[in-house]
Amino acid sequence: MAAARRLTQRSARQQARRFLVEGPQAVAAALELGAAGHADLVTELFVTPAARERHPDLLAVARNAAVSVVPVTPAVLASMAETVTPQGIVAVARFLDVGLEQVLAGQPRLVAVLAAVRDPGNAGTVLRCADAAGADAVVLTTDSVDVYNGKCVRASAGSLFHLPVVRSVEPTVAVTQLRQAGLRVLAAAGGGPTDLDDLADAGGLTGPTGWLFGNEAWGLSGRLTALADDVVRVPIHGRAESLNLATAAGVCLYASARAHRDHGR
Amino acid sequence: MAAARRLTQRSARQQARRFLVEGPQAVAAALELGAAGHADLVTELFVTPAARERHPDLLAVARNAAVSVVPVTPAVLASMAETVTPQGIVAVARFLDVGLEQVLAGQPRLVAVLAAVRDPGNAGTVLRCADAAGADAVVLTTDSVDVYNGKCVRASAGSLFHLPVVRSVEPTVAVTQLRQAGLRVLAAAGGGPTDLDDLADAGGLTGPTGWLFGNEAWGLSGRLTALADDVVRVPIHGRAESLNLATAAGVCLYASARAHRDHGR
């Protein structure tokens, strides 16, 4: 239990190569992935008496998978959670990120790269959105938040367990490798020269695409945008100065999804 | 100063018909709107010595507009702010919402309606996104969060001062009036029968459109979706169960913006 509690710290996660999964939705997604062949993904499950009554289905799946189920009091559970409302259930899971080479070997058609994204809630929201838009993978570069941060896992609403996630790749290496693998790398930037709708109209989104999203406050570095094939702005039709990161990512990824659909992906 | 501090409470805002505007970006947008004809919008400006040095431009605009500028210590300023980092500057502004009739008289082409949206950050983010997508107005129904809540004002990043906002309209009245004014009302719902991309392909987004977005957790009520012209889902291509409210709103509003642009709005 103390070992699990330490996983709220990035360094402890890194050492154990395990992280906390909080709340029934995320735990269900983790157990489902475990059952789907990613054996031993979930190692422990901590539940309060109330949660045990509320989620007999989860408990059954856990027992079938020989996951160790540990009953805890609400106070103990709260002490091991990073989010405010873990809803009585926290699991310990093994790291499940994969290498960029492995992702690229699968000939992905849509990849989202988060470069220097620092807010875990934003990172998790973009992960969820990338999943919804049918992306084949999400890459978090070395200067981004830890994808195993509790707030990120929570904001991803289970999507961390739905699509391959790559972490700890140097930003310039990520862009270079995506391009070498035949993806068109598009940097999303408010001041970009290319309008997203124009690009879609011109058929510029139909091929394999890697979207590059930058920091919430300062966006993408010039060094990184210079490596991209194009720098694309979501058009601002009104008087807002910009869009927030998750909204912009949603609009870009869904523009790609629509273009891929129209071209019989 | 005590009067300003009370404006962190909804009831006090309602009584005074004034609210707090926190941070230089939002204050600049308020002063700009004041200068653009909405006279007496900003009534007071509280600034710390550091903020006064950092924003001489804002101070000059305020003085030109005969806004009362009150120097305060950082501690006093923090005590009157709702957000964590007001960055040394807080203004008091008069309510600026308008009636739905007034908005409809302007023959709007794109309106976003927030029904039972409870999180102020979400409401502000959608407001910002509606502004960016070129919406003509945003409507918050009676069961939604107060648009003058500090977190909502902050999340709107100035957009509260960029486009007309309507509040305190009964949800069913809002939908009925939008339809009577000739707008096609589209309810955004995860399980909706109509796919957003299909609708766009079929030309269903080219006319005047009112988008209806519901509560973060439970979506729109059946009573409300029954009143809409169509119930539309953002397609889920991957395995995510749903999108979060702000992302879904962004994708829908930008789909409308693109359709309007393509039809020479």
The portion of residues forming beta strands of chain A comes to: 15-25%
Helix content of chain A: 40-55%
Identify the quaternary structure here.
homodimer
Q: Let me know the average pLDDT of chain A.
A: 94
Terminal residue distance of chain A: 46 Å
Can you offer a commentary on this structure?
2 copies of one chain form a homodimer. Chain A has 2 domains: 93 residues, 60s Ribosomal Protein L30, Chain: A, CATH 3.30.1330; 163 residues, Alpha/beta knot (3-Layer(aba) Sandwich), CATH 3.40.1280.10. Helices cover 42% and strands 20% of the residues of chain A. Chain A is built from 13 helices and 11 strands. A 7-stranded parallel beta sheet of chain A has the order 7-6-5-10-8-11-9.
SSE blueprint and pairings:
2 copies of one chain form a homodimer.
Chain A: H1 2-6, H2 10-16, E1 18-22, H3 24-35, E2 42-47, H4 49-54, H5 56-64, E3 68-71, H6 74-79, E4 89-94, H7 100-105, E5 110-114, H8 120-132, E6 137-141, H9 150-155, E7 165-169, H10 171-180, E8 184-188, E9 194-195, H11 196-201, E10 209-213, H12 222-227, E11 230-233, H13 245-262
Parallel strand pairs in A: 2-3, 5-6, 5-10, 6-7, 8-10, 8-11, 9-11
Antiparallel strand pairs in A: 1-4, 2-4
Which keywords apply here?
homodimer; 265 residues; alpha/beta; 60s Ribosomal Protein L30, Chain: A; Alpha/beta knot; 2 domains; seven-stranded parallel beta sheet; four-stranded mixed beta sheet; 13 helices
